[in-house]
Design a protein that fits this description.
Strand order of the largest sheet: 2-1-3-4
Cofactor: [4Fe-4S] cluster
Structural class: alpha/beta
Protein name: 2-hydroxyacyl-CoA dehydratase
Order of helices and strands: HHEHEHHHEHEHHHHEHEHHEHEH
Family: Belongs to the FldB/FldC dehydratase alpha/beta subunit family.
CATH architecture of the largest domain: 3-Layer(aba) Sandwich
Number of domains: 2
Keywords: Iron, Iron-sulfur, Metal-binding
Shape: globular
Distance between the termini: 36 Å
Number of helices: 16
Bound molecules: Double cubane cluster
Largest sheet: 4 strands, parallel
Number of strands: 8
Organism: Vescimonas coprocola
C-alpha cells in the first residue's frame, strides 16, 4: 500500500495550477542565465534545446484574453489558438513569451505559418520546416531539419550540443512519456478511477513543470496513489465512456470536457495534442539519434499531415483499449484541417467501430457554454 502524503484532489490541483506556478520558476531560471526556448507545437524535438541546458516552455495560447489585441493585426475569422498566441506575444502578457530567448514554430497549418512571419517582427523566431508526409522521404527531410535546428541552437547560444546529451534527454523524455501513458491507461479500467478532467489537467500541467528530471517520479507516485485508492474501492461509478479528439483543447476549450462530465459521462481517453497523440516513445537503440527523433516526432498524427493515417490508426486502437461508448470531436473555429478530417473520423467511428460520434465546433469564448451543455447532455443520454 502506498503511503498517502497528499490526497488526490490536492495533487490534481497542483498539476492543474502548474502553468501559473511556473511563472516564478521561469523567472528564476532566467536570472540564473538559463536559456529559455518557447514552443508552439508538439512537433518540436524538445530534447535538443534541453540538451544544451535550456528550459523549454509551452507558449500561452488557450485563452481569449488577448484575442482583441490580435484581431487588430490578424483576420477575425482565424483559429482562436493562432490569435491567442499571437496576442500573448504582442502584449507580453504571457511570461513564457516574455522570457523566451527564442520562439520556435513549425510549418504546420497555413494560419500558424503566416502568423510566425508577423511574430518575427517583435520576437526572435525560428521555424522548423515540417514535412507534410510521414513517408521515408518525409522522415529523411525531418532528420535534416532537426540537424539544422541543432546547428542553429549551437550558433545562437554559442554552445555545443553533444550526442551524449541528446541521448540523455531522449531517455528522460521517454521516462516522462511512459509515466503519462501509465496514468492515462488507468482510465482503461471500467469503472474509471477518476474524472477525465483531472487526467487532462495533469498531462497539460506536466508540460509546464520546470523540474523535468523529477517529473516521471511525481507522475508515477500519482499513478500509484490512484491505483491504491481504486483497489480500495474508490472510483467514478459506472458511466458512459467518452473519447475526445480534434484540435488542441486546453484552457478555454476545456468547457467541452466539463460539459461532457457534467452530463454524467467520463472522458476516458483524450487523443488531442496534450493527450495521447503526442505520447510517443523514441527508439533509444537507434544508432542514428537524429533519425530516431525524426521518426518519433513525425509519427504524431496531426491533421496537418496529408494523408494522416496515424490519427485514424490511433483512434481505432484507443476506442478498443478504453472501451469507448462515444466519440466527441472538438474543432476550433476556422481549423480547416481538423474540420475536413471529421468526415474520415466520423466514418471510422460510426461505420467501423459502430459507436456514436459528434462534432463540436467552438472557440475560446464562453458564449456557447449553455449550448454545448445542452448538446453534450443529449449525446450522453443516447449512449
Ligand atoms: S501537432 S494539433 S500542436 S499543429 S493552429 S491546426 S487548431 S487551425 S494546433 Fe497543433 Fe502541433 Fe498539430 Fe498538435 Fe487547427 Fe488552429 Fe492550426 Fe492548430
Amino acid at each position: 500500500m502506498v503511503e498517502l502524503k497528499k490526497d488526490l484532489p490536492e495533487i490534481f490541483e497542483e498539476f492543474a495550477d502548474q502553468r501559473r506556478n511556473s511563472f516564478l520558476a521561469i523567472k528564476k531560471l532566467k536570472e540564473q542565465g538559463v536559456p529559455v526556448v518557447g514552443a508552439f507545437c508538439t512537433y518540436l524535438p524538445k530534447e535538443l534545446p534541453r540538451a544544451m541546458g535550456a528550459a523549454v516552455v509551452g507558449l500561452c495560447s488557450v485563452s481569449d484574453e488577448t484575442i482583441p489585441d490580435a484581431e487588430k493585426d490578424l483576420p477575425r475569422n482565424l483559429c482562436p489558438l493562432i490569435k491567442s498566441s499571437y496576442g500573448f506575444a504582442k502584449t507580453d502578457k504571457c511570461p513564457f513569451f516574455y522570457f523566451s530567448d527564442l520562439v520556435v514554430g513549425e510549418t504546420t497549418c497555413d494560419g500558424k505559418k503566416k502568423m510566425y512571419e508577423m511574430l518575427a517582427d517583435f520576437k526572435p523566431v525560428y521555424v522548423i520546416e515540417l514535412p507534410n508526409r510521414q513517408s521515408e522521404e518525409g522522415i529523411a527531410m525531418y532528420r535534416r531539419e532537426i540537424i539544422r535546428f541543432k546547428e542553429e541552437l549551437e550558433r545562437r547560444f554559442e554552445t555545443t550540443i553533444t550526442e551524449e546529451a541528446i541521448r540523455h534527454e531522449i531517455h528522460l523524455n521517454n521516462e516522462i512519456t511512459k509515466s503519462l501513458l501509465r496514468l492515462q491507461y488507468l482510465m482503461a479500467n471500467d469503472p474509471a478511477p477518476v474524472s477525465g478532467l483531472n487526467i487532462v489537467n495533469t498531462a497539460y500541467g506536466s508540460g509546464f513543470n520546470m523540474d523535468v528530471e523529477s517529473l516521471p517520479a511525481r507522475i508515477n507516485d500519482l499513478a500509484d496513489q490512484i491505483e491504491a485508492e481504486y483497489a480500495a474501492g474508490k472510483n467514478e461509478g459506472k458511466k458512459p465512456r467518452i473519447l475526445v479528439t480534434g484540435s488542441p483543447s486546453g484552457g478555454a476549450a476545456l468547457k467541452v470536457i466539463r460539459a461532457i462530465e457534467d452530463a454524467g459521462a467520463v472522458v476516458v481517453a483524450f487523443e488531442n495534442c496534450s493527450g495521447l497523440k503526442s505520447m510517443l516513445l523514441t527508439d533509444e537503440e537507434n544508432p542514428d539519434v537524429y533519425d530516431a527523433l525524426a521518426r518519433r516526432y513525425l509519427g504524431i498524427g496531426c491533421s496537418c499531415m496529408s494523408p494522416n493515417p496515424n490519427r485514424l490508426a490511433m483512434l481505432d486502437k484507443l476506442i478498443d483499449e478504453f472501451h469507448v461508448d462515444g466519440v466527441v470531436d472538438i474543432i476550433l473555429q476556422a481549423c480547416h484541417t481538423y474540420n475536413v478530417e471529421t468526415a474520415l473520423v466520423g466514418k471510422l467511428v460510426k461505420e467501423k467501430k459502430g459507436i456514436p460520434y459528434t462534432v463540436v465546433e467552438t472557440d475560446y469564448s464562453q458564449s456557447d457554454v449553455g449550448q454545448i451543455q445542452t448538446r453534450m447532455a443529449a449525446f450522453v443520454e443516447m449512449l
